[in-house]
């Protein structure tokens, strides 16, 4: 806890849940949630891995020091089945 408080004093965005927004600690929502979704989907499809993967995204709305995209779309081609993952961490609502 002391480490988290000290880090928060230096960079408020690098603590608790938000640490996932930095490549030092995470790959964003894709590695946070996406990996669990993919486990279930691969199990249901009976596949070990996709044939191809395409991803695109960027930092379009967040105005903070995060490194990972605030918007991300990923497509996995499992040969006959296309799986998509969407990450949208921002909207037009003003910050409070």
Structure description:
The chain has 96 residues and is an alpha+beta fold. β2 and β3 form a beta hairpin. The model has no long low-confidence stretch (mean pLDDT 84).
Note the gap between the termini.
25 Å
Continuous helix count: 2
Strand order of the largest sheet: 1-2-3
| Averaged pLDDT | 84
- The residue ranges in which pLDDT falls below 50 over 5 or more consecutive positions are none
The chain-level structural class is alpha+beta
Counted beta strands: 3
Note the overall shape.
Answer: elongated
The major β-sheet equals: 3 strands, antiparallel
* Strand content range: 15-25%
Helix content: 25-40%
Computed over alpha carbons, the radius of gyration is 16 Å
Quaternary organization: single chain
Question: Order of helices and strands, N to C?
Answer: HHEEE
Q: TL;DR of this structure?
A:
Helix content is 27%, strand content 22%. It has a 3-stranded antiparallel β-sheet, covered by helices on one side.
Helix and strand topology:
Blueprint: H1 2-10, H2 29-45, E1 52-58, E2 71-77, E3 82-88
Antiparallel strand pairs: 1-2, 2-3
List keywords for this structure.
alpha+beta; 96 residues; 3-stranded antiparallel beta sheet; 27% helix; 2 helices
């Amino acid at each position: 806890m002391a480490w988290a408080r000290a880090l928060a004093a230096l960079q408020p965005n690098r603590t608790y849940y938000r640490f996932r927004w930095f490549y030092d600690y995470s790959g964003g929502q894709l590695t946070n949630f996406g990996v669990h979704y993919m486990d279930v989907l691969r199990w249901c499809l009976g596949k070990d891995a996709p044939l191809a993967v395409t991803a695109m995204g960027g930092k379009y709305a967040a105005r903070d020091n995060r490194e990972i995209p605030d918007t991300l779309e990923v497509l996995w081609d499992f040969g006959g089945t296309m799986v998509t993952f969407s990450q949208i961490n921002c909207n037009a609502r003003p910050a409070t």
